[in-house]
């Protein structure tokens, strides 16, 4: 019999609030956390907007040594992992550590630290060859960032399978999907999984500037992230992390854990088309959705809410809308679809996990978060995107999807504990 | 202890996933069956191409040389497993050259060779029936170093339109998928030197979950000045100047490791699918895979009192991989060691092997002494080498390592290849900070 996997703990640090409560309050109020970049002077850049998180490592309880060695993304992930475990009520110390694993997603990993070290080693970009006297002892771990998953394993005492998944912008769905597969196949009983990215650093901003993927709407940062809106012209870069406790259903029930949802289906496909481009037909994302629903053993009409990738680029929102129609048929028109990136921006590899957190809270509260800044219609985006205002709505089954550079298209189905018990 | 923590037998609880894709060669009973290796492509410092590499390994030819990519005079270490004579333009279309790092070019070429070796025509295979799972340690690092330099010496407008995807860790998976029209489940994993075995393990899982064919493995390279300094900061790099003596795993004179570049890409398949398409050869089967993690080091968050009697993570990974394969240590004919070349790490690995197999009871080898440590590429190259060992009945030697401390208690293959019938090999890898992975390969059960 297939082992069932449920989520029993959430830890989140995202723009607009720390912890699930503040995060949900931001989302349901429709407030946007997108602002002019403050981490550095953004004036030389095409896109000068980002969603920055309010994160103080000292207040978060990290030691000086931890703050010194850990990249900002690692700090976020470690804090979220602790919070998720606390939220789950699991006494990790009482578990067999061999049966506990970690799945961490991240797209650009230690980008912030890489850039900091680069500036020191190269004398702010002057030197191609570098001065060994300025070398940080942590540089290797920014080059090869699997230490990020190691730090989480140490934090939660995991000695089972520990994996770092780096699939670009689907990393946050894929790391949780990976964890689900490991529990199902019996390689672990508990997985602490999720994703973290803190890419608001000049090199990453310049990367997306170069391909005009981010919005240049610099005169109106708070209204800059406009998924599905006719006037959308790119995404808003963000940072954030979300980590979860996943465990086998029967043990979660036996210990009386609060179950946010069961992960009933997960699938990923690739478009084999272009490293950054998307075909308008949405074929591969539709296939991922079809397989995830099939694995969930539910009909398409069971989907109550679609948490969209909705990045706010011209091609993504069109591609995704086509994928929903292709996979759900008429039901796509009858289902609320929304993009929280309109409020918290696009934190690359982390966002898939941040959106899983939003999906769990939508199930928890029977409320669908809105798509902020959606005012102008686009004939190619003609679904119910829940514009501007959150909506009370019975949410038992959520489909959450992601799309990433490299061609990755991932889909996950989450169902409320009432539905699955 | 709560019920969640109940110890289960290793390998127990495997169950088929619900979803399967259609396809003419789809195994009707996925989930637990064998997974074949039907194609191998190698890009190693001592050989470009599988047979060229194998010939070099058996002849004891090393790819460890003084770095020629940049002036190393100011750095304390100057030797690397460097690939020479790779002309990317001879292997790849010109439009791919400006958008790829050297590591991705090597990965694309190795993938081409593996697919050709397997006799697969990707264009004739259902697109969702092929996936790509690679490991990557460094991303497109030299490429990204150039872009950092442009950003900070010229300005944001100078940054390449390719930087956003030439850098990140999923680049090789994505480019292999695009080049070959592979639209099945795909992924990229990072676990330093252990990641390559994790990719193979996940590829095997992906096949068992219903995707008939997965291209898998790993390739890394970071031999620009910034990449090189980053290697050095690990504190484990050999400062030796004699290429023959720089990386001596398990030798009393071990003085660190030499980083290398390259790796191996493998085609793994469901046996039913392989038979259905008339696969020309089967190198062997990936019979077992497991990964474990070590407890927190002293002084780190999560440090806990030592638990006497608990086996080290590396041994546990090996035991679990063998149990999954339905094998015991006495079935293993050779161990391909992680072979860190750092004395305390060598000793720890020797102890794990000795305690699992008994003192000097199994040949142990480390042909990576001839290539350097390839990070994501290391595990897949060792698996490729293990499969050739099975094919040809000869175990390669461990480079120049010769003087193994007696108390290690391992039978290291030294001074030249050793003829032996090999039906089963255990491949070990450790990633910095506590990652342990093990793969068991054996002759295919036909």
UniProtKB/TrEMBL annotation, chain A:
E.C. numbers: 2.3.1.-, 2.3.1.235
GO molecular-function term, one example from the UniProt record: 3-oxoacyl-[acyl-carrier-protein] synthase activity
Signal peptide: none
Ketosynthase family 3 (KS3) domain span: 2-416
Protein name (record): Act minimal PKS ketosynthase (KS/KS alpha)
Species whose genome carries this gene: Streptomyces eurocidicus
SMART domains attached to this UniProt entry: PKS_KS
GO biological process: fatty acid elongation
Keywords, alphabetical: Acyltransferase, Transferase
InterPro entries: Beta-ketoacyl_synthase, Ketoacyl_synth_AS, Ketoacyl_synth_C, Ketoacyl_synth_N, PKS_Beta-ketoAc_synthase_dom, Thiolase-like
CDD domains: KAS_I_II (cd00834)
Family stated for the protein in its record: Belongs to the thiolase-like superfamily. Beta-ketoacyl-ACP synthases family.
Domain of life, per lineage: Bacteria
Gene3D superfamilies: 3.40.47.10
TrEMBL record, chain B:
Record's keyword terms, sorted: Acyltransferase, Transferase
Stored Pfam families: ketoacyl-synt, Ketoacyl-synt_C
Keyword presence, Acyltransferase: yes
InterPro entries: Beta-ketoacyl_synthase, Ketoacyl_synth_C, Ketoacyl_synth_N, PKS_Beta-ketoAc_synthase_dom, Thiolase-like
Sequence segments annotated as region (Disordered): 1-32
GO biological process: fatty acid biosynthetic process
Keyword Flavoprotein attached: no
Enzyme class: transferase
Gene Ontology MF term list: 3-oxoacyl-[acyl-carrier-protein] synthase activity
The enzyme's E.C. designation: 2.3.1.-
Residues covered by the Ketosynthase family 3 (KS3) domain: 32-443
SUPFAM superfamilies: Thiolase-like
Low complexity biased stretches: 22-32
Family: Belongs to the thiolase-like superfamily. Beta-ketoacyl-ACP synthases family.
Protein name stated in the entry: Act minimal PKS chain-length factor (CLF/KS beta)
């Amino acid at each position: 019999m297939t082992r069932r996997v449920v989520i029993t703990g959430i830890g989140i640090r995202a723009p607009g609030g720390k912890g699930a409560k503040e995060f949900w309050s931001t989302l349901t109020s429709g407030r946007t956390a997108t602002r002019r970049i403050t981490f550095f002077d953004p004036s030389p850049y095409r896109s000068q907007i980002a969603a920055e998180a309010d994160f103080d490592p000292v207040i978060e309880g990290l030691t000086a040594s931890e703050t010194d060695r850990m990249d900002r993304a690692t700090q976020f992930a470690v804090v979220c992992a602790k919070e998720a475990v606390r939220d789950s009520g699991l006494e990790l110390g009482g578990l067999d550590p061999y049966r506990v694993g970690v799945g961490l997603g991240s797209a650009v990993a230690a980008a912030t630290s890489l850039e900091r070290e680069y500036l020191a080693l190269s004398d702010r970009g002057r030197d191609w060859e570098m001065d060994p006297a300025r070398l940080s002892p942590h540089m290797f771990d920014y080059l090869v960032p699997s230490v990020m998953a190691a730090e989480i394993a140490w934090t939660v005492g995991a000695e089972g399978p520990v994996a770092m998944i780096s699939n670009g912008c689907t990393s946050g769905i894929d790391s949780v999907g990976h964890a689900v597969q490991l529990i199902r196949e019996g390689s672990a009983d508990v997985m602490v999984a999720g994703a973290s990215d803190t890419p608001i650093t000049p090199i990453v901003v310049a990367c997306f500037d170069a391909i005009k993927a981010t919005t240049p709407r610099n005169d109106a940062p708070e209204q800059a992230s406009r998924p599905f809106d006719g006037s959308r012209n790119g995404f808003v870069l963000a940072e954030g992390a979300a980590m979860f406790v996943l465990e086998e259903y029967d043990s979660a029930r036996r210990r009386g854990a609060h179950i946010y949802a069961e992960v009933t289906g997960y699938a990923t496909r690739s478009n084999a088309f272009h490293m950054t481009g998307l075909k308008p037909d949405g074929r591969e994302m539709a296939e991922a959705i079809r397989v995830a629903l099939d694995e969930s053993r539910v009909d398409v009409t069971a989907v109550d809410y679609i948490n969209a990738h909705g990045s706010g680029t011209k091609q993504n929102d069109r591609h995704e809308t086509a994928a929903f129609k292709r996979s759900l048929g008429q039901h796509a028109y009858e289902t609320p679809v929304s993009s929280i990136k309109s409020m918290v921006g696009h934190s690359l590899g982390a966002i898939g996990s941040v959106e899983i957190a939003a999906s769990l809270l939508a199930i928890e509260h029977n409320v669908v978060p809105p798509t902020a800044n959606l005012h102008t219609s686009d004939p190619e985006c003609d679904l119910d995107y829940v514009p501007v205002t959150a909506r009370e709505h019975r949410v038992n089954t959520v489909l959450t999807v992601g799309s990433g550079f490299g061609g990755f298209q991932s889909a996950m189905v989450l169902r409320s504990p009432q539905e699955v018990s | 202890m709560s019920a969640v923590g109940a110890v289960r037998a290793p390998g127990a609880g495997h169950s088929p996933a619900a979803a399967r894709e259609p396809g003419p060669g789809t195994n009707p009973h996925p989930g637990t069956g064998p997974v074949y290796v039907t194609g191998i492509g190698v890009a190693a410092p001592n050989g470009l191409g599988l047979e060229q590499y194998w010939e070099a390994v058996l002849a004891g030819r090393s790819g460890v040389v003084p770095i020629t990519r940049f002036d190393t005079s100011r750095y304390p270490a100057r030797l690397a497993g460097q690939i020479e004579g790779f002309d990317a333009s001879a292997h790849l279309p010109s439009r791919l050259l400006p958008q790829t790092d050297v590591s991705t070019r090597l990965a694309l070429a190795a993938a081409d060779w593996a697919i050709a070796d397997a006799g697969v025509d990707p264009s004739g295979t259902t697109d969702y029936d092929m996936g790509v799972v690679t490991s990557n340690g460094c991303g497109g690092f030299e490429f990204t170093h150039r872009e950092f330099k442009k950003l900070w010496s010229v300005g944001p407008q100078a940054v390449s339109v390719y930087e956003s995807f030439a850098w990140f860790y999923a680049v090789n998976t994505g480019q292999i998928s695009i080049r070959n029209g592979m639209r099945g489940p795909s992924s990229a994993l990072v676990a330093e030197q252990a990641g390559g075995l994790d990719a193979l393990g996940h590829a095997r899982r992906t096949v068992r979950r219903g995707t008939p064919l997965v291209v898998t493995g790993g390739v890394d390279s970071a031999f620009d000045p910034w990449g090189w300094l980053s290697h050095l900061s690990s504190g484990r790099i050999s400062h030796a100047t004699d290429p023959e003596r720089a990386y001596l795993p398990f030798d009393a004179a071990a003085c660190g490791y030499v980083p290398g570049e390259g790796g191996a890409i493998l085609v793994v398949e469901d046996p039913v699918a392989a038979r259905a398409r008339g696969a020309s050869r089967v190198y062997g089967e990936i019979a077992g895979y497991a990964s474990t993690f070590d407890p927190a080091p002293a002084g780190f968050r999560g440090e806990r009192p030592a638990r006497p009697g608990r086996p080290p993570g590396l041994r546990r990974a090996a035991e679990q991989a063998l149990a999954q394969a339905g094998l015991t240590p006495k079935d293993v004919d050779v161990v391909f060691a992680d072979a860190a070349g750092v004395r305390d790490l060598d000793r720890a690995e020797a102890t794990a092997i000795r305690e699992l197999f008994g003192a000097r009871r199994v040949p142990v080898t480390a042909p990576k002494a001839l290539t350097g440590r390839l990070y994501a590429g290391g595990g897949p190259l060792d698996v490729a080498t293990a499969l050739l060992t099975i094919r040809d009945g000869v175990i390669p030697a461990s480079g120049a390592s010769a003087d193994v401390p007696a108390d290690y208690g391992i039978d290291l293959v030294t001074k030249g290849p050793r003829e032996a019938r090999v039906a089963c090999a255990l491949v070990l890898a450790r990633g910095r900070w506590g990652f342990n992975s093990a793969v068991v390969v054996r002759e295919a059960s036909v």
